[in-house]
Fold each of these.
Amino acid sequence: MRLDLTHIQRWIEPGSRVLDLGCGSGEFLETLQRERSVRGTGIEIDEDNINAAIARGLNIIEQNMDGGLANFRDQSFDTVVMAHALQAVHYPDKVLEEMLRIGRQCIVTFPNFGHWRCRLYLGTRGRMPVSKFMPHSWYDTPNIHFCTVRDFEALCSERNIRILARDFVGNTDREPLLATTWPNLFATTAIYHITR
Amino acid sequence: MTTTLDSGSVGIVTPRTVRFDQPLLLACGRELPDVELVYETYGELNPQRSNAILICHALSGHHHAAGYHHEDERKPGWWDECIGPGKPIDTRRFFVVSLNNIGGCHGSTGPTSINPETGKPWGPDFPPLRARDWVHSQARLADYLGIDCWAAVIGGSLGGMQAMRWSLEYPDRLKHCVVIAAAMKLSAQNLAFNELARQAIFSDPVFDDGNYIYRDEIPARGLALARMVGHVTYLSDEAMANKFGRELRAGSLEMGNEDDIEFQVQSYLRYQGSQFSSQFDANTYVLMTRALDYFDLAREYDNDPVKAFSHARCSFLVISFSTDWRFSPTRSQEIVDALIAADRPVTYAEIEADEGHDAFLMPIPRYLRTFSAYMQRVGGDD
């Protein structure tokens, strides 16, 4: 399981109702159902992922988040999770607003574009960073809305989004302390527990 | 042609008939004094009786869903793509029950059956039916077969509507409900197409308010035209373009054609229409389209589908097809949204397919994969 997902689990109440936006093949939802007995629903658009998630016995809805989430009622889920999808949606701020409307709490993870490697790459080469973690070229990347840790916190403060907890994952085992101390420089992944 | 017994086929099947002497009270308030149901089964019922699956048929369907009645039968049952060994409804795991609904014309009590009170066929006097009447008669069949609870009730189109009705009428008698290319009620456009079909039948002088049945005649022209209208709505623009395009049957585009049939698509429609009119009963068609028209899942639940589905206890699989304009993906999404709001477990897939409404009968790879993946969870201990 991806490191950011193991971090999230402790914020999810056992037996609660969870909506996972962009759930992929459902690995995380399956873990949550097994270990925290949640009632989970996943949203996904990739057909192979959808089939894999169905085969895991999960409840999966084929839906494109960019088409809106108006079909979900206000405060109808205990937690809405979106792992590593914020940067890939057309209107990240609108999706965040929708998540906060649907869920009593939300958990968002995203790659931090402020990481020193990104800055170094852009600063020295003058080109959009391409790495193992961001393998796409600028013209074919699904990640159309990269942001930094500070960008995200600025948005939260503008929109009166309350940050209940934050956690950061560094690049290597040596970096966790750096990542939590100077997240905007050393966190590769940012994890936010938010509410209204 | 001997096409039977390939490894994915249930092989040769024999329909059976069961007769219930107890009257069946219908939604309209009238009673059917006795009911005969013709049905087929595929696979074996397990000792726990927990692997039974009910197939609900659509407007013009019947009990013969899979396999062949005899070795020389030209085509297998209507849903042979989905029912059989290794298929989504895998007969190595499931005991599958498929019946002809009451009101039908393939052996179950319907307008062509004898009305015991008159000694003549029911014809146009057959009582009007609602989807719940079918569900109640299907429950009798379940009792007769010793099935307390279906592992799944499955249907496409009008069959999907029966499956949903099952989840509300008998919430404790099914574990899964599979609703394919269906809707919670018909749109005005849908009602209009059904009206066209009925008017086509009524306009055939042979029909004579349904009394043709007493004269050994059939309103073949009207019924064929009704089927042609229906058929166009079951296909998509893409499907028709792929299948026929603008191809002529003979002659040239400059000169036209002396023949009455010019384009390939005309030939196809006429063939479909005439085939159908020789196999189907016009009174049944009128009866079935009306049952479809009046289907409204949530009407008696204050027109609130969320309230309706809050009575359901089963899990749901909903599937739609991208080019289906008869029951479009939007209609399926409405079902899914109501189920989510009612906090019922639901899985939904919208299958990209060119075949329109008819896609639910076709071997579309992603459709079969998704359907199969879901069926893995059916029939377990859940």
Note: Chain B has a mean pLDDT of 94.
Amino acid sequence: MYKVIKNEQISSNSFLMEVIAPIILKRFIPGQFVIVMAKEDSERIPLTIYDYDHKKGTISLIYQIVGASTEELSTIKNEIFAIVGPLGNPNEICKNPENYKDKKIVYVAGGVGIAPIYPQVKYLKERGYNIDVIYGARKANLLIIRDKIEQVVHKISYATDDGSFGTKGFVTDVLEKKINNYDICIAIGPVIMMKNVCDLTKKYKLRTIVSMNPLMVDGSGMCGACRCEVEGKPKFACIHGPEFDGHKVNFELALKRMNIYKEEEQEKWAQMKKKNS
Amino acid sequence: MNGNDKIKMRTQDPNKRNKNFDEVELGYSEEEATKEAERCLHCKVPKCVEGCPVNIMIPDFIAAIKEHNIKKAYDILSESTSLPAVCGRVCPQEKQCEAKCIRGIKGDSIAIGSLERYVADEAIKNNFTSSVMSKANGKKVAIIGSGPSGLSCAGDLAKAGYKVVIYEVLHKAGGVLTYGIPEFRLPKKIVEEQINSLKKLGVEINLNVPVGNAITLDELQKENDAVFIGTGAGLPKFMGIEGEDASGVFSANEILTRINLMGGYQKDSKTPIKHAKKAYVIGGGNVAMDAVRSLKRLGIEAHIMYRRGEEELPARKMEVEHAKEEGIQFDLLKNPIKILVDDDNNVTGMEVVDMELSEPGEDGRRNVNAIKGSNHNVECDMVVMALGTGPNHEALKESNIKITDRNLIYVDGTKTSLDNVFAGGDAVTGAATVILAMEAGKKAAKEIITMLN
């Protein structure tokens, strides 16, 4: 059991959970993720680490309710059954910041994709780097943790589909205007958003790293559920990723593989709702 | 009865058991165990002991059964094995101890595995603890992985007075015993009991710790008197054929993990198993049998597809027989060359070729080749790859431990290239059996004890 300090709703569909987990924190470098189990019989769900506090020995996670398991997670009060990490590889810039000293870096976040991006920007700011962020969502009230990200960025631009905040349009519209300013781009968000960013940056030959978030079970390389096609070869997001060169990822396949258990998951969710009502 | 026939263990009716996950074999009664024990000839030079990878004093524990002294039988087992309830069930005895049994020349060998299981199950029922314990010596050993090699190493070290801490990445201990081998062959309660008996010896298990990420091998090496690496062979192999990324193509590891570790076979399980009508499991080993028999129990029409023939099936004979009794269909001498999919990337079938075996070459091995023009399609909506697994060296990240050209951990005996670091099991040999991993764990414990004394 792991102690939960906080588990609260931060937007219409997002939750923030803070857990005491010093063992995860000790060697964590942004880009890595954890797997959590709400209760002993729960599913294992991969989540990216959003924030960390070395003094308190805590990590924070942001998640959205997308099915029975995340809904169950949102009901947890004092402790969760399991949290394992850090898993996967660190972001390559955070791992070796000195290699990027003279590079202009831009982060592009789509929706809750801001959650894994925030710790990277924070980590790099702590090491003296100036990072620009482009942050988009469907509408203004889905732009979460704005106050937090604004404290660590050099410049930030917003985009919303309906124009309720920042530029009306997509993150790609904002990125295209200043694309020549940058040497490397890190894009994290829904698969379709990462695909669109990569389609654009390919045109401008801007190297782009994406973070894949496929289905996973163990998260340690054992099951192969998380396989993605990168440069025509199968790669396991859990141990080979989760970050890959976005220009080499087969996003169409990734989109289809997200739906493998769609029917079964909806059944489980319906079962759970029936049981709770 | 002339004593040439063994007492067969009772099993659940095939047509009932292929719909549930309860254990297939029901175990011996006291009467059956005694009768079987009485068949033992107590050879002066017991060949069976030589055949046992961990050299259990087989005639002695069988003699104790005859005397109805089950505690004594258990103590004899405990001298050589930390997991008798597991070994009694999943060891390939027919190739080991039982293969050497003199009784086997004229009739059936003594059912050593069944007797071992009987003693171990009685020990669990009666809460026996092993009485072979040494005083704590203040020395610390870290073990990476809680599978068969790690557990067996831990047991021997704990009994010898060492403080043992096991690091496990999953939320349950047991490695392949927990995530891989299904309930109907090895009930998880039995595995838990065996692990509990190690905990009673003072073994500590740290779950949810990914060594290599949360803590490194180098750190463990510095903080302990010795380290044992038993990380197994966990990385599933795929064929590399077209369509393998389809929704509906899984590794056997994924299917088994969802079913066993996550309890996916239970109706109210929170971890889903993909619905399917007809599945092909590709491969012919024990893992393939476990996967296909599990799928059958979920109500799926389940087939084995294997590129060689019946004779060449690498699975234990008993598993193949059990599978057949349960209605598993064997499509032999066939090999998929392409997975067929619909627009949504769901599996609709496979393109398959017939295979033929060549005459044995000089090494006695028969090659297998596709028959030209034999391509045909089969329908199915699930394909499970049970092609074996490779080593997973995640735990070794940031360490400069020597790896062989076969991508296995290099060892001399069980000693790796690093000081005070030992390794054994599948991470050293490539995918093998539970008992060979246990043997390696035992051997490492012995070498660690020698080194630290």
Note: Chain A touches chain B through 45 residues (CB under 8 Å).
